[in-house]
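Weekly modeling sync, notes
Attendees: S.R. (lead), two postdocs, one rotation student

Agenda item 3: backlog of single-chain predictions. S.R. asked that every request posted to the team notebook include the full sequence so nobody has to chase files. The rotation student volunteered to paste the first one in as an example of the format we agreed on. Action items at the bottom.

Example entry:
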Amino acid sequence: MIMPLTSTRISPDWPCQVKTPGSYDWERSAAKWLRELIPARYASYPALIRHPVLLARHAQIQVQQEIRVARTALQTARAELPVLGLPESVIEHTIKLYAAEVLQLQHIARSVRAVSEALAGHGTSR
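Predicted structure, as returned to the notebook:
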């Protein structure tokens, strides 16, 4: 019987861009994915390059801040966008955009958490 390549230990939120924990070069694929989530200026900091767990922590903080920004934009759009002279159709589209972004960022946050936990678990095992 051929066993499936997927593991039951992998979270459904595991990002497809990151290899399965324990597989060859998985930590490198995790670090590459995490670097894409943070501002480019951080990606060159030696501490973040050398320590993927630290990179994951920073990515978690970054994504949580982005969620706060998107929520604020969503919550204030109805009151603040009309003042800018935008037509109602643009305002409605923008509100839908912000709502979708909050959902997407929440999914990314769960993915970052899954990768962070895997990196932390790998770093503590011998």
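Discussion: group reviewed the output briefly. Residues 88-124 form the longest helix (37 residues).
Action items: rotation student to repeat for the remaining queue; S.R. to check formatting next week.
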